[in-house]
Here is the input.
Amino acid sequence: MSVATTEASAEQEIRAALDSLLKTVSSKDVDAIMDFYAPDIVAYDAIAALQFKGAEAYGEHWRQCLSMCGELSMEASDIHIATAGDLATSYYLHRCAGVDDKGEEQACWMRATVVWRRQGVVGRSSMITFRPPSIRKAARR
Here is the structure.
């Protein structure tokens, strides 16, 4: 198998894993979500603590975040992937949307950078790039 074929196959594998991760997040099953992450994950997130070290800490963060959401959907766009051996990086825009207790959709776009290793995601960084009006109003108070 040529290097180009191997890299294309690895990129397809990462795209499939990312798609599966986003679908799993929408299901709100934290144990299934955490199956994507290596035990030694280091994550930088947009809310709560800025850094989470280890799957246990990051799993608790997921639990807290998902407890605030009703129906949830995630999507990714503008996905870029680079692979080398057992490592890959991806960066993309993702939209997180949920329905609040009034039945109204609340959504925001974020950017994400993810470091993948054959055993799972080992690094993740998310940053909110757009604040919806409801958050901007709360920030002004």
